[in-house]
Hints:
380 residues, alpha+beta, 4 helices, 23 strands
Amino acid sequence: MGARFYPGGASIPELKMPSVKLMALIWTVYMLGVSLGLYLILKKYQKRDWAWFCIPAAALLTAGIIYCIAPFHRMSGPLGHHEAVIKLLDGGFAEIAGNSLIVSHRGGEYQMTDSGVGLIYPEINYRGNGQWEKAVVQYNREGQNVCFDGVEFWSMRQARYYKVDENFGTLDGGIKLSNQNAYVFLQNNTGMDLVECVAVIGDRAINIGRLDAGEKINKKIDIDDIKNFNCQNEVNNWFEDMKWEREKWSHSRTIRVANNQYTKTLIAQVIAYINNVPGLMALTGDNAQNYYTALVLQELPVEYPASGKLKLPPGFILPVAVDGGGIEITPKGSVLHGVMVTLDYNLNLPVDNLEITEVKINKIATTTSKVKIYDWSKGQ
Length: 380
């Protein structure tokens, strides 16, 4: 229902429509009853002039039956769907950006409440160049309220919001790399159950799975077994309704990767999906139903060995296309577009006593056939 205005509305529970066979049966009975059946009955009792009353009555009766089996009668109250991207910060703080959607089955006045201090932007425009009435945002000590007046029958409203909240907790742990293995240590010290969770370095990911609040996990994996990770496609398997969040995270990851090429820190990040988020906006009122989906992000520290040999698999250090083309991240890996493309790899490791002694260039999915390597440190 919400997909017309906002992609996230797809996660609102689907109302089961009447079956096609039932609707066909109702219309068949109506057509036969009004035409042949009514004609024979009125003819038998010599009351053909009653057709002026019986035909409209049959039409109203049929319309009433269809109205009674309509799906919105099975909704006990309005639906609220809330989506967010939650970035966990230090000290238990969280940066939250989200969208809330109301689906009204009766029309009237509705109110959404949000705790804490934040910014709320009620939408007034929707597809088709139409506009809703402007909503009123009220700020108080407990938080803020968004009041929607004059909501039409079987209509919807939406509002976007942003805030920094506290007491969210953190995901404590990190990733430790050795010559052949990667070790993931993670403890969920938030109040949220992570339905799905992965730890990502570059375009590679270590699957963690479900991690409930208070639970911890220690996982060991061979570095060569760490699989390619594509946010737009992998996260899509968790939930279909997070298109806006996936695109936003993909954009921020592109910026993050570009900035990373000129620092000494390879960034690891936890990406998780949750469907029960405390402290987010909620639709209030009698029989109001609220549904939540959110993407959780948090950076993780990466520990490298102080000495010895370390092999980093492809994808841990991502390149930046300086000129000549671009890089597209696909489910099968990175695809390079362009005839002559200059890629910049920053090979500054975060451990001072480690030195890169060998670089291997893997095959790249592109039409170019010649690879030239320029070492900026040696100028050749």
